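Structure, all two chains, one model.
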Amino acid sequence: MISCEEASQICNKSQYREASLYEKIKLKFHILFCASCARFSKKNKKLTSLCEEADLHCLTEQEKTTIKKNIKEQL
Amino acid sequence: MYIKSGMTLHKLHPDTWVDHYADYLFNYAIARVNDEEVAKDLVQETFFAGLKSAKNFMGTATERTWLVAILKRKIIDHYRKINSKKGKAEVRINYNDRSESEGDWLEEQVADPFSLQENDALENEELGLAIQDCIDKLPEKQHLAFTMKTVRGLSTEDICNELNINPSNLWVMIHRARTALMGCLNENWFKL
């Protein structure tokens, strides 16, 4: 059986659809026997769905650098 | 103005504004103007206006509350400008001219205040700002990694190249960020 550390990594990857089928099976199996990873997995999924619901936006690093530069010029 | 004695007054730190508040203000603006470019300009204008009126900052509100107040005014100005460009502030009433609805009151046509869709939009914005607030509390590297992966949806490979780290470093950062976010959102959003 995989370790909790490995389980949480697979769980994180699967939030971004980057876990392979074999990994997902290993995770499912681990969760059957591990309550704390089951809890983590549930919360992690919830976080993913909250982030999707929230439709977050952000400025790119480049855009931020430009704004910072413009602010400096105003100082 | 009433200030509790002994209350610490907030100070302004314009050099950290972009890192601390740009994304929060950006999300706030996008929810209201629905246009990334316009929202970006409004955020920048907010910072400029903040600098100009920094001497008026009393320190009774937090920096962010103060900046949001400025942004609100910028958004109102933005809509005024759009309307004046059209030549006039138009209020167009398309009165329903189908004969069967003749004589119906206009009030019947206004948006339903209890409409689920409207409430959803409000709730999503509140949620978005709550999450952004938590993201902004993350340490810099986790903040960057989480935002690139989750908000911008970049691939693991691209992020690793840009940050010059290997995938397992990235997943460790993502793990820490996600765990911290769950903790931060715990009170309001994780009551399962």
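The first helix of chain B runs from residue 17 to 33.
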